[in-house]
Amino acid sequence: MFEYFYNEILRSTIIGFGSLFNGIEVHHQNDQDQTVSVIQVPIAYGPTQKFLARMQQEANLNRPVQITLPRMSFEFISLTYDPSRKTSKNQTFITTSPDGSQVKRLYSPVPYNMGFELSIYTKLNDDMLQIIEQILPYFQPHYNLSIKFLGSLNEIRDVPVVLDTINMDDDYEGNFDTRRALVYTLQFTAKTYLYGPVTDVSGDIIRKVTIGYLAGSIGGGVATRDLTYQVTPRATKDYDNSLISNLDEDVDISQTMIKVTNPEGITENTYVYIDTEEMFVEKVIGERIKVRRGQDNTKASIHVLGTDVFSITKEDNKLIEFGDDFGFSANII
Question: Reduced to 3 states, what is the DSSP secondary structure of residue 135?
């Protein structure tokens, strides 16, 4: 039942959540409202109590080599199943690698809610207010975080990050040796998905279909009519840039006799690709080719003098990418 796989979904979500709060700054101004210092607030992964304990144990935290304020920390604190986003568990979808060389199959991901806690530590109340105002406007009450899942497959999903609660703690009471700790704690929920194992189905793609027809009496093991029909996918555009000629005139939408610069490079009963239109070459007559326009649901369009003419060959059939339109070549054997 179980097999090893690791899609790094939780790790990717944790990293994505932490990256939301990079680049937050605190500005300090003088009496003339001139900015005298800009502090980029650092963020690290860790529990709130760890940072509070370190602040309480250090006698002098304002030295450059010690922990300084303001700063932030975040922590992954919970993981719960979300039945409200459940889909059919038997539903599958297909995806390909960026270069189209591999086709992968996955079952529908399972919805889970990840709980996060973001803690903000400052010494001055104005520093805290600056940080809070740079965060809250983006959550109304959620922010869509785009995360790349499944490594090289480039599966990108928008993960809603919902701001649940805000807790404020200001320990301003105490003796003069006690350092003030102004702490705001923000609770978030990231609505992510967990994927199961990824199966390589590159070898399972159907590239040829053969159907046999038998008609009449088959008594004695011989049919009165036997017909075998074979169909293979055929590319409807050029993939390998096989340039064979150029247009030697402007071509309108209805024109079927087209003048080209190199008619010797074009073969009858083959397909050519011009701009985004596929054409079938019926005849080569002198410097012109007689074609059927707009093949395989491509749209007949206007082409200008000098446009490249590409050949669609059997090599292109091997390069058809997943999700592309294609035609069929049929043979009776």
Answer: helix
CA–CA separation, 236 and 313 (whole Å): 10
Amino acid in the structure at residue 112: Y
| Top-tier CATH class for 9-200 | alpha beta
Phi/psi of residue 289, each to 5°? -120, 140
Separation between Cα atoms, residue 326 and residue 100, nearest integer Å? 15
Condensed to tens digits (0 to 9), the pLDDT of residues 26-65 reads 998 888 888 888 989 999 887 766 656 555 555 454 554 4
For residue 129, report the phi and psi dihedrals to the nearest 5 degrees: -65, -35
* 141-152 tens-digit pLDDT: 889 998 887 766
**pTM score above 0.70:** no
| CATH number given to 230-332 | 2.40.33
- Tell me the longest C-alpha to C-alpha distance in the chain: 110
Q: Are domains 9-200 and 230-332 of this chain identical in fold?
A: no
From the list 239, 247, 225, the residue with the least C-alpha distance to 291 is: 247
Question: Can you tell me the distance from the alpha carbon of 153 to that of 104, in angstroms, rounded to the nearest whole number?
Answer: 8
What integer pLDDT is reported at residue 66 of this predicted model?
A: 43
For the residues of 157-207, what is the DSSP string, one character each?
A: EEEEEEEEEEEEEEE--S-TTSPPEEEEEEEEEEEEEE----EE-GGG---
- The residue extents of the domains of the chain are 9-200, 230-332
Chain centroid offset of residue 141 CA: 25
Cβ atoms of 81 and 52 closer than 8 Å: no
Token couple for 35 = 């900015």
Strands 25-29, 71-81: pairing kind: unpaired
CB under 8 Å to 251, separation ≥6 — which residues?
258, 274, 302, 303, 304
Question: Tokens 């080599």 appear where?
Answer: 65
Distance (Å, whole) CA 134 – CA 118? 14
- DSSP readout, 263-310? GGG--TTEEEEETTEEEEEEEEETTEEEEE-SGGGPPP--B-TT-EEE
